[in-house]
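Rotation project, supervised by the postdoc (A.L.). Task for the rotation student: set up a whole-complex structure prediction and record inputs and outputs verbatim in this book. Inputs entered:
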Amino acid sequence: MNTFGQLFRVSVFGESHGACAGITVDGVPAGIPFTTEDMIADLQRRQGGNMQGTTPRKESDIPKIISGVFNDKTTGAPLTIIFENNNIDSSVYEKQRAIPRPGHADFVAEQKFGGHQDYRGSGHFSARLTVGIVAAGVLAKKIIAPVTVSVHVTEVDGENDIETGIKKAVAENDSVGALVECNVTNVPVGLGEPFFDSIESVLSHAMFSIPAVKGVEFGAGFAAARMRGSKHNDAIISSDGKTKTNHAGGITGGITNGNDIVFRLAFKPASSTPKEQTSMNMQTQQLESFSLDGRHDLCVALRAPAIVEALTAIVLTDAMLLAQFSKRVATDF
Amino acid sequence: MNTFGQLFRVSVFGESHGACAGITVDGVPAGIPFTTEDMIADLQRRQGGNMQGTTPRKESDIPKIISGVFNDKTTGAPLTIIFENNNIDSSVYEKQRAIPRPGHADFVAEQKFGGHQDYRGSGHFSARLTVGIVAAGVLAKKIIAPVTVSVHVTEVDGENDIETGIKKAVAENDSVGALVECNVTNVPVGLGEPFFDSIESVLSHAMFSIPAVKGVEFGAGFAAARMRGSKHNDAIISSDGKTKTNHAGGITGGITNGNDIVFRLAFKPASSTPKEQTSMNMQTQQLESFSLDGRHDLCVALRAPAIVEALTAIVLTDAMLLAQFSKRVATDF
Amino acid sequence: MNTFGQLFRVSVFGESHGACAGITVDGVPAGIPFTTEDMIADLQRRQGGNMQGTTPRKESDIPKIISGVFNDKTTGAPLTIIFENNNIDSSVYEKQRAIPRPGHADFVAEQKFGGHQDYRGSGHFSARLTVGIVAAGVLAKKIIAPVTVSVHVTEVDGENDIETGIKKAVAENDSVGALVECNVTNVPVGLGEPFFDSIESVLSHAMFSIPAVKGVEFGAGFAAARMRGSKHNDAIISSDGKTKTNHAGGITGGITNGNDIVFRLAFKPASSTPKEQTSMNMQTQQLESFSLDGRHDLCVALRAPAIVEALTAIVLTDAMLLAQFSKRVATDF
Amino acid sequence: MNTFGQLFRVSVFGESHGACAGITVDGVPAGIPFTTEDMIADLQRRQGGNMQGTTPRKESDIPKIISGVFNDKTTGAPLTIIFENNNIDSSVYEKQRAIPRPGHADFVAEQKFGGHQDYRGSGHFSARLTVGIVAAGVLAKKIIAPVTVSVHVTEVDGENDIETGIKKAVAENDSVGALVECNVTNVPVGLGEPFFDSIESVLSHAMFSIPAVKGVEFGAGFAAARMRGSKHNDAIISSDGKTKTNHAGGITGGITNGNDIVFRLAFKPASSTPKEQTSMNMQTQQLESFSLDGRHDLCVALRAPAIVEALTAIVLTDAMLLAQFSKRVATDF
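Outputs recorded:
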C-alpha cells in the first residue's frame, strides 16, 4: 500500500510530526556511488523555503542513510534513508482536531483509522512524506542516465508568468492552484507493459499519490478530445520512430515510442488557505467558522518540480529494468 | 503486467485476430449468481455496432465461462471467460505491415517484441481485449452494490450534443475525440490507501489502460489549477462527511470522503482515420502516403461507457475488499 | 492467489470436472518456438496412465493454445493453454458429498467457500490442475537451457526399488507414499534474493502447492540436523565456487552457489485409498464407514516427476530473469 | 524481494555491522496497543546470550519505533522499528575477506553484488536481520489471538535431551544441528489459498528465509512417505472438522482444517564452527586452511524459537486477514 514499483521498489513511512519521515528502496543495483551530499540539491529545491508563497517552516531535511550503502556505494541490499523531524510545534493541531479541515485528509483519516491516526500536521498523509521520494529520485536519476527528466511550473493561478501568479496569491492571502509540466528526453523505445501497466498508467498512478494533484494528461491530453485523427496522429518520419509532431506525448499503445515523454499535472490550490472557512465541528455537531494557524504554502506546486522529477525517475527506473529483461531474453532465441 | 488488482484480480489475455480474447478473475467471493445472460446488456453497450460512428465489424461477442462457476454461482475459484473470434479478416494487416500506422502500437510492438508480436488487428494491443473487462465488470457491479457507477459521453469533437459531433465526423470522414464522465454514487468513506494507492492513483492506473485515453481528472480537475483555496475547498456540512460542493470529486487525501466520485477522461480521436496519412515504410525506408482499409470506429469513445464502468467497478471492488478488512480488524482492539 | 512468479508468472484456473483446466503464462519472452507438439512428452509422463499404481482414468490431455503464440512462436503476450475435460463421470461425487473424505480438501473447501465450490472430483483442488503446470514447464525448460532439471522417484512405500514398492501397494490394495528427488545442473551462481526470496523459499513455496507434498529438504536436509559444522560445511575448491561436497544442495545464504541444486520431497500416500474408512456424515452428524469408488492413483508420486520438473523450471526461469537484471545493471556503474 | 506478505507486509533492511537492522510493517490495523516494552521478552529469547552454546556477543537490542505508533497505539500507517548496532568489531572480517567461508553467503554475495556488498559480519545476509522479525512478530501475535504459536527445540546434535546435545557441542568445540517444532492452537478453518498459496507454501516460504533452515515438514512429514493411506488419513470425528489423528499437521488440501498446525524444521549446524577449515583464497587462488575468530553460536537453533514463532504469527496474520475478507463477502450473497 505504501510501496510502489516491481523491480525498483520504494516504500515510504513516517509522519509529519512524529520521529521522522523515511523511505526504503529495494532492488537497487549494487555499486552505484551514493552519498548524502548527492541529495542536497534536489532536497533544497523541494524545500522551497526561500520562495515567496511557500511555508516558512524550515526543516533541516538532513538525510541519514541507515542501510544499503557501504564505502559510499550502494550494496544491492535495501537502502533506507530517514529524515528526523526537528521543527515541530503540534499544539495547533490538538485545538483544530474537532473540526475536520475542508480539503484535508482529516475527516477520511478519522473514519478510516478509527481515530487512531497521528493527526498532527496530517500525520502520514502529510506532504512531508515526499522528502523521502525526492531522496530516492536522486538515486533513480543516476540509474536512468542519459535519460533526463525536467519539470517546470508553467502556470500559477491562471498566470503563465509565475511571479505574477504568486504575487496575486500573496496579495489576496489565498492559496492558488498551478500547472506543472514534465519533459523526459533520450527515452528508449519500448517502456511500459500491456495491458494494465502502460507507461501512462504507471506514471499517472505515481503522480496521483502526490498531494494536491487532481489531473494528469499526456501529450495533447484534454485538447486531444477536440482534435481530429488526421491532425492528432503523429507521422513517423524516421526508422527509429521519431515523429513529426508529438501529440501523443511520446507514448503510443501505452508504450514509449522514442520521442520525448510529455505530461502535465493540475495542482489544486492548497487546502490550507489563510481565509476563513466553514466546517462541521464533530463534537458539537454544529457548523463553525474558523481560520487556520500554522505554517502553510500558498502554492504547493512551487515545491512540486523536485517531487515530480523524482517520481518520474523512479517510475522510469522500474520500467527500464522491466523492459531490459524482456528484450534481452527475447534476442536469445 | 496483464494483471490488475490486489484481492480482486483481473488478468487479460488474447488477441484481436487470434483464437479469442479472454479474462480470468481471481479472488471472486463464492456464491454470487453469475451467468452468461448477465453479461449480454453491457457487452452490447460496448459493441456499439448499431451506432453511427462505430465500426461495422460485428463480433458475436458470446461469452463462454470456462471455469469458476458451478450451478450458476461463483465457486470462489478463478473465473475465466473467453470470447472466440469469428469475424476475422486478416489480409489487410499483412499488406500494411511494413508501414507502422501513426498513433498505433505498430512501431512500439515491433520494437518491443522483436517482430514476433501478432500484428493482425493490433493483436494483444487491440481494444478487442476490453470485451473481457466488460464481462468482469458485470460481476464487479454485483459485488459493489448498492454503489452504482454510471458513465456518459459528454462531448464529441467539441460538441456537447453528441449526435451533432458524430454527424460532423461522418460528414468529414475523420476520426474524432471525445470527453467521457464517470459518476459513482453511494460511495463508502475510506476507500483508497495511503501513500501510493490513493483511489485516484488506482482509478487512473486502470483508466490509462483503455486505448485512446490521454487525460484523467477528478472533480474540478484541470479547472482546479485556476481556482483559489477558499473557493475549491468543499465545506463539510454533515457528520457523515457530506460537503456543500464537490470540487474534490469525492476524494480527499486520496481517500473517498462519502460524496460522489466524479472523474472525466479525454479520449483522443481514433488513430484509424479514413484520411490519407504519411508514415515511414520500414522496408524501403521511404516516407509513404497511404489510406487504411478495414473496419474502424470514427469515435471510439462511443463504446467507452461500458468499459469505463466495468473498470471502475473492478477498481472499487478491490478497494472495498481492502478497506473492509482494515476497518473490521481495527475495531477488534 | 492462483498466480505464482514475479517476471515469469503462471496463473492456473479450471476444475477437475468442469469445462477445462488451464494456465496463463505472463512475462514470456517473445520469439520462443512453441507448439502443442512440444508438450506431448511431458504431458504423457505426467499422465502415468500406463503405469501400475496410477489411475485408469484417461484424459486425452490435448493442449489447446488459445493466446500468445503466432506463427509457432511466442509473441510476448500472455500465453494461455487449456485442456478440455472429456472423460467425466461425476455421479459418484454427489453421493459422497455428505461425507467429507479424510485427507481430502472436501471439508475445508465446504467451509471456506460456503458450499459453493465445485465439489466434483475435488474441483479446483484437484491434481488435474497440474496439467497446465506441466505445459508451462515445457516453455520454462526452453528458457533456462542449458540448465537441466531432472526428477526421479527414489522410494515407494519405503522401498528403494520402485517396482517392489508399487507391487506391495497393489497387492495390499492401499495407497502408498514416496520420496522424490530433484537435481538441477549447470546452475548459474546468484539465483535467489535475500531476505525473503531465498531460492529455497521460492522452490519450497512452489513445491508445497503440489497436492500430497508434506516435506521439502535441500541438500543434506533433515540429516543436517545431526551433522557437525566441520562435516557439513562444503569446502570451496575452485574460484567458480565448486565445492568438494554438496551438503548444502547448491545453495548457501539462500543463493545458488554454482553447484547442483538438490532437493527431496516427501509425498504422503494418496488420500483416496480403496480401503474402508470412517468419517463424519455432515447431514446425519453420525460417524459412517464407507469405501471410495472412482478412479484413483495408489501412488500419486509416480506422476510427480513431470510436475516437479515443470515447477522447478518455472521457478528457475523467474529467478534467472530477476538475477540477470540485477547483475547487468550493476556492472554499468 | 526483502518484503513478505500480502495484506500484512513486513520489509526488512539493515546490516550486521552497519548503522542498524530494521523492519517496516505495512497493513497494520489501527488501534493496537504497542510499545517497546511489549517486545522485550521475545527479543531476549532470541538473544540467547545467557545460554551455553550461543554467542557471547551482546547487542543491547533496544527497539526504537520511528513510525506508525502514536499515543502507544498503532495508527494504521507503516510501523518501522530499528535496532542500532553498537557492539561492533569489524576488523576480523577484512582479514577473512579473501577467503570465502564455507557454508556462508560470502562467495555468493561477492558474485551477486559484484564485491559491493557489506561483507562485515555477513552484512545483509546476517541473522542479525531476524531481530526485526521478532519485533514484528510481537505485533502479529496480538492480532491473531486467541490463536497461539509455540516453538521448541526438540533435538540438538541428535540428542533429545537438549542440555546433553549442547554439552557435546561445547566439549568437542564444533557447531551442531538441531530440530525445532512449531505448534499452533485454536486455528480457524480455512486459512491458505489455492492453488499456489497453500498455507504450507506460505509457511515454508517464510521458514526457509531463516538462516540455517534446510528442511521443513508438516504433520507426519517425511515419515508420511512410508505410510499407507489407510493409516495416514485422519478420520474426521466431529462436525467442526476435528480429526482422530493429526498426521496432516492440521492442513488438508493446503488449507487449515481446524486442528493444530504442526511443523518441524531442520537446522543445519552453524557454518561458523571453531574447527579448522579449508577454502579457496580468491586472491592467491590457492586452497588455504584457516580458523575463524569472532563471536559465534555453536547451535543457532537455540535462538530459533522466538524467530520461528514470530514468522509463523506473521504468516498467520496475513492468512487470517485474507481469509476473513473472502468469507465475509461471500456470506453477503
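Student's summary: Confidence is low (pLDDT under 50) at residues 328-333 of chain B.
Supervisor addendum: DSSP finds eight helices and 15 strands in chain B.
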